[in-house]
Amino acid sequence: MKAEPKKRWWTPDDWSGYVFISPWLFGFLVFSIMPIMVSLYLAFTKYDILSPPEWVGFDNFKEMFTADPRYWKSVKATLIFVFVAVPLRLCFALVIAMLLNTKLRLLGFFRAAYYLPTLIGGSVAVAVMWRQLFGSEGAFNSFLAAVFGVAEKVSWITQPSTAMVTLILLSVWQFGSSMLIFLAGLKQVPHELYEASTVDGANGRQKFISITLPLLTPVIFFNLVMGVINGFKVFTEGLIVTGGGPLDTTLFYALYLYEKSFRYYEMGYGSAMAWVLLLTIGFLTAILFATSKKWVYYESKGD
């Protein structure tokens, strides 16, 4: 018997494939992997762009955790934003998705209208509009004066007690992408389950808790993970609307990282902050994935 020809690990077809993806590979290596490695090195140096990096070991991290009060203010502001804005945004998106899942006239128009803020929500123009809306001469004060007779004009974005609230409202207003994902998930819920529960005498609340919510848990999990990641990276709103806010109440982590790196030219310190942010997001994402086994229902697994 003739021995079977030995399989080759590399064929001419492989060359053609790598040639076609070579532009992407080049961009990924040069503009992603290399900057990441360089930032890891700079995190352990003192570097101001104008002079060569000076190796300082863990001094940047030591200063960050023990000698920089503004750093902890940025951490506090970011955590407040993430743990308040993300759940509110998900709840609001789910409510609107359930409303749009009914048979309404002009349903396509309403879906497009509700998604529009997400398309333009992250732009500088919208942030400027939001700043004008909640300024002392903004439309919000005019609304309060016309409806409730409030004569005092308050700049909501410059008050320590309300500046964060305005940014949370802006985040909740940009609920369109989460809403569309929830809507797609609602379309996949079998109507037979609702019909069977109706026969058993279940009301609307019982149907939501026993059918809708469990079958939506994979969608909720996806939106939650993406919301947490994007929440920790919030930047434009804090920079344009409040500029870090009164008494640093809206000094988000990414905004402080930007200030340290490009306003004060402390690139080493900024790189250290970036790596702490990366590890924090990775850690929280890992926790969400680990706990998802307890509350996320996947029909294919028979949970």
**Strand fraction band?**
under 5%
List the helices and strands in order. Answer: HEEHHHHHHHHHHHH
Distance between the termini: 51 Å
Mean pLDDT: 88
The major pleated sheet works out as:
2 strands, antiparallel
Structure keywords:
303 residues, mainly alpha, two-stranded antiparallel ribbon
List the helices and strands and how they pair.
Layout: H1 12-42, E1 45-46, E2 54-55, H2 59-66, H3 69-100, H4 107-120, H5 124-133, H6 139-148, H7 163-173, H8 176-187, H9 191-199, H10 204-232, H11 236-242, H12 253-263, H13 267-295
Antiparallel strand pairs: 1-2
Structure description:
This protein is mostly helical. Helix content is 70%, strand content 1%. It has helices spanning 12-42, 59-66, 69-100, 107-120, 124-133, 139-148, 163-173, 176-187, 191-199, 204-232, 236-242, 253-263, 267-295; strands at residues 45-46, 54-55. Strands 1-2 form a two-stranded antiparallel ribbon. α3 packs parallel to α7 and α3 packs across α8 (176-187). The longest helix has 32 residues, at 69-100. The chain is globular. The protein starts with 11 loop residues before the first helix and ends in an 8-residue tail after the last helix. The mean pLDDT is 88.
